[in-house]
Every structure is written in structure tokens, then in C-alpha cells.
Write a structure and sequence with these properties.
This protein has helices at 19-27, 30-33, 63-69, 73-85, and strands spanning 6-13, 39-46, 53-60, 91-95. With 101 residues, the protein is α+β, with helices and mostly antiparallel strands. The protein has a single domain (6-96), classed as Alpha-Beta Plaits, CATH 3.30.70.
């Protein structure tokens, strides 16, 4: 991966009946994450076709600061609750910006 900012795309799919709880849990991550070192953007989207399916698009200054974010109390709390909320394991993919676009 190229040096510089890191973009993350995370997909969350709620268990049946857990849609509202997952939305609350994911939304609760926004405010504390905005205070984490290296935070640039943290945008949450909900599917217009499937309630309870969310995509989080993040941007971090460096891979190291992203790694530190992943070990914060708010993320660890979410990870502990995730098995009760998620229908499938969380999907997380990292991307680097392509120069010239």
C-alpha cells in the first residue's frame, strides 16, 4: 500500500431483529472516533434496499493511526457486542488513493 492516507470500507449486516440495535451501536462510534488521532473522515451509510445493512467509509492519516483507533475503548466495546448484532462477520477492506484521479 502506498504511503499516506488510508481509506477503509467496512460493511455491517444486522441479524434479523437487531437492525435498530446495530444502527445505534454503529452510530455511537462516530463522536468518539472523531476525537481519535489521525481521523480525517468517518461517513456512515445505510442501504436503501436492505434495512440493517450499513457501510462505513473512513479516512485515516496513516496506517499506524488507524491501528491505534482499532484498539480504542469505543471500538473494543463494539467488537465485544458485534457477535450479538451481526448476521455475518464484519467485512473490512483497506484502500489507498490512486494518484491522478
Amino acid at each position: 500500500m502506498a504511503e499516506g492516507t488510508v481509506h477503509v470500507v467496512a460493511k455491517f449486516v444486522a441479524k434479523p431483529g437487531q437492525e435498530a440495535a446495530l444502527k445505534t451501536a454503529v452510530t455511537a462510534l462516530i463522536a468518539p472516533t472523531q476525537k481519535d488521532p489521525g481521523y480525517i473522515a468517518y461517513d456512515l451509510y445505510e442501504s436503501t434496499q436492505r434495512p440493517g445493512e450499513f457501510v462505513l467509509v473512513e479516512e485515516w492519516a496513516t496506517k499506524e493511526l488507524l491501528a491505534a483507533h482499532l484498539d480504542t475503548p469505543h471500538l473494543n466495546g463494539f467488537k465485544a457486542a458485534a457477535p450479538d448484532l451481526l448476521a455475518v462477520p464484519l467485512s473490512v477492506k483497506l484502500f489507498a488513493e490512486m494518484p491522478g484521479f
